[in-house]
Structure formats: C-alpha cells, structure tokens
Amino acid sequence: MKTLLNKKAVRELMLTNDYDAYSLAEKMNVAPSTIYRILNGDRGVGGELIPKLLKAFDLTEKDFDKLFIFSEMLPFSNDEKQKIIQ
User: For residues 26, 28, 32 and 38, what is the CA-based torsion angle, rounded to 10 degrees?
Assistant: First the structure.
C-alpha cells in the first residue's frame, strides 16, 4: 500500500484556513518548495510530512482519511514482468 495525498482536500483546507504555500510551509516548518512539490505530485508524502500536515490543519490521527488515500501498489508493472519472464 502507498499513501497518497488528497490534493483537492488539502487545497480546500488551505482556502478555508487562508493559507498559501508559504504560510502552510511556515506552519509545517518546511520549505515552500516542499509544499509546491507535493501539491504538483512531484514528491510523495512520507512519515515526516504526514503528521506535519495533520497538525497544520488542526486534524488528529482520526482525520487521516480526510487528507490521505491508500493506493494498492502492484509489485511489478507489466513491462517489468515481461523482462523477468523472458
């Protein structure tokens, strides 16, 4: 399983809380470029960012599913399977 960010929910919470990328970054104690990268999908959310995002929006662990989605990952893509089979 992979944890994915619900970008739409984060953007809505940013609007609700009057945050831009800079103010959210400041609240989370990260660089603004980190916020831009996760919102653009250039970076995933790891163990360090998950609690910081929850805390920035005053959410608890019980609210995890408001910001994050679990996605099943296949162990190999079809191309990788073909390489192993051959």
Answer: -160
Asked if pLDDT for residue 26 goes beyond 50, the answer is yes
Structure tokens, 19: 């945050």
Which of 24, 1, 9 lies closest to 64, judged by CA? Answer: 9
SS3 84: helix
pTM: 0.75
What is the predicted pLDDT for the residue at 46? 82
Query: CA of 7: how far to CAs of 35, 45, 82, 85, in Å?
Result: 11, 11, 33, 37
